[in-house]
Amino acid sequence: MNSRFEIVVSDAAQRTQVFVGEGICPADLAGLPQASTVLPLVDAGVPSAHAVRTAALLSALGQRVLPPLALPLGEAAKSLDGFAALAEAALNSGIDRDTRVVVVGGGATLDCGQFLAAVLLRGLDCCVVPTTLLAQVDAGVGGKCGLDAGPRKNQIGVIRQPIALLLDTGFLSTLPRGEVLSGLAEMAKVALLAGGALHEAMHAHARSGAALPSNALLATCVEYKVRVVERDPFERGERILLNAGHTVGHALEAASLEAGVVLPHGLCVALGLRAEARHFAEQGAAAVEALLDALGLPRRVPQGLDLERAVSFIVADKKRRGAQMRVPVIDAPGQVRVMECAVNDCVNALRTLAAD
Ligand SMILES: NC(=O)c1ccc[n+]([C@@H]2O[C@H](COP(=O)([O-])OP(=O)(O)OC[C@H]3O[C@@H](n4cnc5c(N)ncnc54)[C@H](O)[C@@H]3O)[C@@H](O)[C@H]2O)c1
Ligand SMILES: [Zn+2]
Q1: Same structural domain for residues 154 and 182?
Q2: Which of 84, 109, 261, 277 has the fewest Cβ atoms within 10 Å of its own Cβ atom?
Q3: pLDDT at 1
Q4: What is the model's pLDDT at position 160?
């Protein structure tokens, strides 16, 4: 299935064309004006099996494709030091004000690459080609981008929409199971926020035993997020709901990065959704946990990850922001609210994971 829709970011009159389907062909891109030059920023971990797919996309997006700049695998792509070297390489690559930056890769590459496009020569047009499930349903959608400051995630960044978001599901064939699960966790979050037919469809996917979600299900989840971003691009209201599971999830992710324990972003979010629902949900966590269990998402933190280190990240986060914590709570599928709470409540939510 190839579908195509458009994000209109209301207060900036910015338009993003979004394509979803297997194998995006040049005809799909006919609505985009061709750039004179294209600067590819490519995740070094995208398997070479996708080289032809990537090359075809790049040459459809501009007349002359500059030599690609490779970004290191995973979170290393978001380091401040690495960014300085990347920016210098980009400035020496032959770009000008009309160059289109095309970022190809997982969420970490997209976060760094979109940020570079946003600040290079005070902002170049950017096309985003996410290659992991998590990046296709979440990280690549919505324009948030930036870098980490040590273990503190996403502390330097902007929100800037790309001109095109190209979701070629052909990239997903090479993903290891853990990365698929990570993407399914963000899809589960969206399904729990939306409730109704989307929640049902996620359960149906779990029952089907298929390794990957259908393109239709993927497109529905993307469209849900696109519409929220359209209404609230700068997270002044409704968009905060998309952070469900992330208060606890980000603390786990910071602790896992510090300890060198591999725990992909989506799995941190799955644990965060469980913890926050267990502690805060008015109707109990049963429906949230039932969907996460059906999808085979983890119930416990991996060995080597110290929950008390994660607690200290929540406390430090609170100190830095100085305000009450605002946590989106999913009471039941389709029923969500933002709750103001004390830092201790979030700590207690996190500690519910010790019981499992
Ligand atoms: N900006 C946002 O709105 C947003 C939202 C969610 C997450 N994020 C960020 O996204 C990052 C996580 O993204 P991710 O889950 O994509 O992880 P990732 O970017 O670390 O990629 C995971 C691994 O998969 C490899 N890979 C990429 N494409 C592949 C393919 N087609 N086949 C096989 N392997 C492939 C990568 O090289 C990497 O080793 C985190 O930094 C997180 O903070 C950002
Ligand atoms: Zn997330």
Answers
A1: no
A2: 84
A3: 58
A4: 94
- Domain with 146 in it: 3-174
Pairing of strands 152-159, 144-149: antiparallel
pLDDT for the residue numbered 145: 98
> From the CB of 144, is ligand 1 less than 6 Å away?
yes
Q: Is the CB of 53 under 6 A from ligand 1?
A: no
Ligand 1 binding pocket includes 268 (Cβ within 6 Å): no
pLDDT of residue 6: 72
pTM: 0.95
**Which residue from 22, 132, 133, 253 has its CB within 8 A of the most atoms of ligand 1, so it is best to mutate?**
132
Torsion angle of C-alpha atoms 297, 346, 315, 299, degrees rounded to 10 = -20
Ligand nearest to the CA of 190: 2
Q: Do 149 and 63 reside in the same domain of the chain?
A: yes
Give yes or no for residue 46 CB within 6 A of ligand 1. yes
Is 222 a member of any domain? no
Which residues of the chain, if any, have pLDDT below 70?
A: 1, 10-13, 318-323, 356
Q: What is the predicted pLDDT for the residue at 28?
A: 81
Q: What is the CATH number of the domain that holds 238?
A: 1.20.1090.10
Is the Cβ–Cβ distance between 74 and 139 less than 8 Å? no
Residue 223 inside a domain? The answer is: no
Q: Ligand 1, atom 14: nearest CA belongs to which residue?
A: 107
In a domain, 273, yes or no: yes
Task: Please check whether residue 148 is in contact with residue 121, taking contact to mean a CB–CB distance below 8 angstroms.
Answer: no
Q: Are strands 69-71 and 62-65 parallel, antiparallel or unpaired?
A: unpaired
Domain count, the chain: 2
